Amino acid sequence: MNVRNWGWIVGCVLLALWGSQPAAAQGQPPPPDAACRLCHADSAGTMALPSGELLHAQVDPAVLEQSVHGLESAEPVYCTDCHGPRQRYQYPHAPSDASDRAQYRADTALTCEQCHDTAAVHNPGHLQATTSSDLPNCVDCHGGHAVAPAAVLRADPVGSCQQCHQSYPDEQLSWVHAEVTANFGPGQSCETCHASVPPSEDALCQSCHSLLAGDLTLASGEKVSLHVNPADLVQSVHGEQVREGIPYTTLRCTDCHQEQARQGFPHPQPDAANRRQRTIALQQVCQECHLDVYESNAGGVHAQHLRDGQLEAATCTDCHGSHAIQEPDQPRERISQICGNCHAEIQSQYVGSVHGAALIGENNPDVPVCTDCHGSHAISDPTTAAFRLSSPRMCGQCHADAAVMDKYGISTDVFSSYVADFHGTTVTLFERQAPDEETNKAVCYDCHGVHNILPATAENSTIIKANLLATCQQCHPGANENFPDSWTSHFRPSLEHNPLVYWVDLFYAVVIPLTLSGFVLFIGSDLFRRVREHFQRQRKEPADV
Amino acid sequence: MSSPPPRKEYYRFDRFQRVEHLLLIVSFTTLAVTGLPQMYSLQPWASFLILGMGGIEFVRVLHRLAAVVLILGSILHFVALAYRLLVRRVALTLLPGWQDLRDGLQALGHNLGLVRQPPRMGRYNFGEKVEYWAVIWGTVVMVLTGFMLWNPIATTSLLPGAFIPAAKAAHGGEALLAVLSILTWHFYNVHVKRFNRSMFTGYISHAEMEEEHALELEAIEQGRAERGTDAAALRRRQRIFVPVAAAITGLLLVGLYFFVTYEQTAIATVPRQQVEVFVPATPVAEEVH
Question: Which of A119, A533, B24, B82 is most buried (CB neighbours < 10 A)?
Fold first, then answer.
């Protein structure tokens, strides 16, 4: 240790003067480090460390007083509390063990532990500072003499961290931190993620993604929003709830985003070349919980198209959403809106139909929504012969059900009268016997329309008298004006409707039993005579013998 | 048939008549077997039969083929009948009369034991006349209604549309009546009561003649049977009949062709509603990602 002698002599004199003053005159005992302050207040001295670095001896007393450890504070800290042991600092001070400035600071910081349980309140990463001079110690953040309380640090948390963390080795880390710190809300700080007690995996995800406003750019140049509102998930069907008696906890981010769970942060760039492929790839995870639905969907037309490479075909999240998944049928009209996202033209037809208008206008619970006819997951291809052949039964499920139809005054004879007619008989037989063969016989929607079905009384209806011929001519191009009347319009034959059929039926209902009973009676009488004659001959023959 | 009968038998049906009957058996049976399942198509037994016969569309083709055979047979019968009446001038032995009603009532009375003597009947007894005219009536109804169902567009160009479903009702009702009549009246009278072979062999036994055609038998025995027409007159009439009959037959055949091919009622493939399936909504109703 190299000492400029004159400096220490001055200090010694001042200490002697301080010590000669009677304590009673001060009103209270002098602080135990009064002598330290006396010398170091305006010392221009330095201490050279083995590394060649110099330590300046001057300490600004005002800085000490204003710090959280100041003499006026509740529990003042004296110079020797930290710069101990006291003996070492008896003048002349014993040489420091530190070989360089960093070690000196680290050694000093160790003394914080005398009062502060640093492990309890500090980021474990930084506590490793004691084993590596590259990492910060207490004084690096809190300051040495100008010790800042935690509240002061929290007031500008980013600033104090950024003293060291000004740049990141990774571009992703760099912009994520820039964006997250720029968007900090009240109470949020670096510690939100980098807390002394590590936050849960989910909290880690959410703390960034709730603050991120930017996009992830995929190889294709498409952008995927990185912002996630954690409340969306909590309030979704995947939030904490009891379902059918089974309690569920909120789904964790990494339950679905498993790749991120494996790789941690920073996240690897997604494999998917574009947004669509990423969406499709992510759906694989749904089956882990929803296997039955997933398998049922795999047999559906959407999954088939996906397998065939038509990537626009719907997958789980296209209909259900991702984070904010709600019951798809609450309210019921939501179903048609969801389907309409991709099938807008059909949706617009449906909205104008008798079914769609009742659904959207009145939230009618009886009218079919898309899924009632097409199914939800195992959606069959509606262009197949099988779908067409089974469609009348599908319509009949409601239209032959008096419990539903009576409310609207709609006849439930429509299905049975259709099946009894040429078209319906053929279609029913085909459905039973050759379900994959095409038939040219009409099904319900050939006449009534598919998605654009109108009430049978509507002005534009395909089946009102004025339009029926044109409807028939779709399949019967040669049909004339009388031709539509050959259709019995779903009415049972009666005096009012189809009277000609009624009379013919009545005629045969009388003539057949009458004729047959005449024949049978005559045959009976003939048999009666023959049996009688047979026995008469038997009686006579023995007598003749 | 060609060898003389060993016992006393009487020639009843010539070869032509027997062929007509065979045609009728084939067409009628086919029509019944392919038609009744269509009438009751959704009954399990009918579905089963339809499936067994190759499906409803093929059953319909079979039914129409059999209908063509029936109509051809009818034309044949019509021409042959005309020949017998106009050229050979046979007696109108099949015309029904009051005597048939009396015979029927007497037979019934006799069966019930109320009348001692059974009726003595001519070449065609009341039971056979009922059958013959039932076949005539039935064929006319079935051919007419069948035409309507086969050619509904042609029919509705002349008649109101309501005739088509009415024709369907009549076609079914008449078919049922015909089949049930054959199964009861015809089968009892010529198969159950006694197997009458005359429609197959051409010959009828003396006993059957006595029982069912006593008056005809008497006429034959007394030599009052039909005299053959003299050859000159026959040839003269044939000269007129053959061209006229050929012309009428030709017309009828043209009519049959018309019947079969007149219209293509419906197109073979139903047009599909063309609608663009994948049309993303803009903006989407609900943002999902």
Answer: B24
Whether A326 shows a pLDDT value over 80: the answer reads yes
Task: Kindly provide the residue ranges of all beta strands, DSSP E only, lying in A218-315, ordered along the sequence.
Answer: 223-225, 241-243, 246-248
The pLDDT tens digits for A228-241 are: 998 999 999 999 99
A contact test, residue of B108, B163, B171, B289 with most A CBs within 10 A:
B289
pLDDT greater than 50 at residue B149: yes
A450 touches B: beta carbon within 8 Å: yes
The CA distance from B193 to B203, in Å, is 18
Classify domain B9-261 at the CATH class level: mainly alpha
Select the residue from B49, B130, B153 to test the A interface by mutation, using most A Cβ atoms within 10 A: B153
Please say if the pLDDT value at position A134 is more than 80.
no
**What residue ranges do the domains of chain A occupy?**
1-149, 156-326, 380-492, 494-545
Verify whether the Cβ–Cβ distance A505 to B173 is below 8 Å.
yes
Closest approach of B121 to chain A, Cα-based (Å): 16
Interface residue B41 vs chain A (CB under 8 A)? yes
Number of Cβ atoms within 10 Å of the Cβ of A149: 13
Rounded-to-integer distance, Cα B27 and Cα B50, Å: 18
Predicted pLDDT at A11: 52
Q: Does A486 touch chain B (CB under 8 A)?
A: yes
Cα distance between residue A152 and residue A459, in whole Å: 77
Contact A344 B280 (CB under 8 A): yes
Taking CB atoms and an 8 Å cutoff, what residues of chain A touch B181? 515-516, 519
- Listed residue (A509, A539, A373) closest to A448, CA to CA: A373
A:382-411 residues touching chain B, CB 8 A cutoff:
383
Query: Chain A 294-313, CB below 8 Å of chain B: which residues?
Result: 312
Q: Do B163 and A434 touch (CB under 8 A)?
A: no
Contacts of A341 in chain B (CB under 8 A): 280-281, 284-286, 288
Would you say B265 and B164 are in contact if contact means Cβ atoms under 8 Å apart? Answer: no
Give backbone dihedrals phi and psi of A266, rounded to 5 degrees, phi first.
-70, 145
* Helix, strand, coil shares, percent, chain B, to 5: 65, 0, 30
Per-residue buried b or exposed e for B134-171, using 16+ beta carbons within 10 Å of the residue's own CB: bbeebbebbbebbbbbbbbbbbbeebebbbbbbbbbbb
Nearest of A260, A293, A302, A292 to residue A278 by alpha carbon: A260
C-beta of residue B189 within 8 angstroms of C-beta of residue B197: no
Instruction: List the single best residue of A326, A504, A512 to mutate versus B (max B Cβ within 10 A).
Output: A504
Q: What is the pLDDT of residues B52-102, one digit of tens each?
A: 999 999 999 999 999 999 999 999 999 999 999 999 888 888 999 999 999
With 90 as the cut, is the pLDDT of residue A200 above it? Answer: no
Could you give the C-alpha distances from B245 to A142, A448, B80, B94, B252, in angstroms and in order? 128, 52, 9, 22, 10
Question: Chain A residue with minimal CA distance to B43?
Answer: A429
Record: contact B264-A341, CB cut-off 8 A: no
- In tens, the pLDDT along A16-67 reads 455 444 444 445 677 777 778 888 888 888 888 888 888 888 888 788 888 8
Long-range contacts of A314-321 (CB under 8 A, 24+ apart): A314/A342, A315/A279, A315/A280, A315/A283, A316/A283, A316/A286, A317/A279, A317/A282, A317/A283, A317/B288, A317/B289, A318/A279, A318/A342, A318/B288, A319/B288, A320/B288, A321/A236, A321/B286, A321/B288, A321/B289
CB proximity under 8 Å: A 270-289 to B:
279
CB atoms near residue A236 (< 10 Å): 19
pLDDT at A87 over 80: no
Lookup result for tokens 């070869």? B15
Reduced to 3 states (helix: H, G, I; strand: E, B; else coil), residue A424 is helix
